[in-house]
Amino acid sequence: MALIHGYTIYPSARKHEVVAEKELSKEIPTDAYQWLQFDLSDPETTTTIRSLEGLDELFVEALLKEATRPRMSISNDDMLIILRGVNLAEGADPEDMVAVRLLISKNRIISCQRRGIWSVNDVAEQIELGQAPKSVGHFLVFLCERLIFRMGDVMEDIEEASAEIEEQVLDNEEHDYRIEIHNLRRQIIQLKRFLIPQRDALLKIQLEKTSWISSKQQLRFREITDQLLRYIEMLDAARDMGTVSQETLYNRQNEQMNKRMYVLSIVAAFFLPLGFFTGLLGVNLAGIPIAENPLAFSWFILLLLVILGFQFWLFKRNKWL
What we know:
Blueprint: E1 3-10, E2 15-18, E3 33-39, H1 45-50, H2 57-63, E4 71-75, E5 78-85, E6 98-104, E7 108-113, H3 118-128, H4 136-149, H5 152-171, H6 178-207, H7 215-281, H8 296-317
Parallel strand pairs: 3-7
Antiparallel strand pairs: 1-2, 1-3, 4-5, 5-6, 6-7
Helix pairs in contact: 3-4, 4-7, 5-6, 5-7, 6-7, 7-8
Organism: Sunxiuqinia elliptica
Subcellular location: Cell membrane
Transmembrane segments: 261-283, 295-315
């Protein structure tokens, strides 16, 4: 079915009525507001939404777009707002954020989604329990609060993971943590891709004026935005810790490489003069000094040992060893 949730809510009477798809054309009572939640994966959704009266055509087009990012626009007291929430479905990646699209007027809320999200289900549960938001403005505030609240555990997990990786990089020099750091930074990038424009959309709500958002509700939006800013700062801190961990790994690898090259250089320096003398005296030509003496080989070995000892003393004196 195209319609997932449909409610006509009477705030003063603290009651609600379920709206069926065949009743969408009915007029909304003056003492009530209506919430219609549609499934965009249903092919009938587009036709159903376009059949509703009084909707801004440009807003409808934006509402039904295939790809979206967080934004907010106002026209003639109607608001189009697109938000994102973390994906908390079992087995899903939280950074694969789920879009919630809303077209809001003074007495009607039309929302769409392609995938389920817990924050929207929270609103439906509140309505079923008889604790529906008192107005359209309260509805939007409550939904935004749930979207931001649901992000808390994910942000704290990322912060803890970055701190743990940083600690392990310092303590464990044997393991290569580049894959863990790459996955963490990729997750942060994907989250910030949507959270930053979502911050801008929430800030814009505080500035724009509508007849159905009160000044008190705008103050609540300020608190919601502050919480979102805190999460973005947590992601920035986690990203910086990942950068520090990555630099530590690179510095350690460079240091290990330099140590190996230093050892090879020392070995080459020791054998360079020895190789010179063995090459010079090993040529098969007449005139080699004391070549006929039976002790010549012993003396030559002794000479090489003396040269080797002198090199060792020289290296120690210059603190090359």
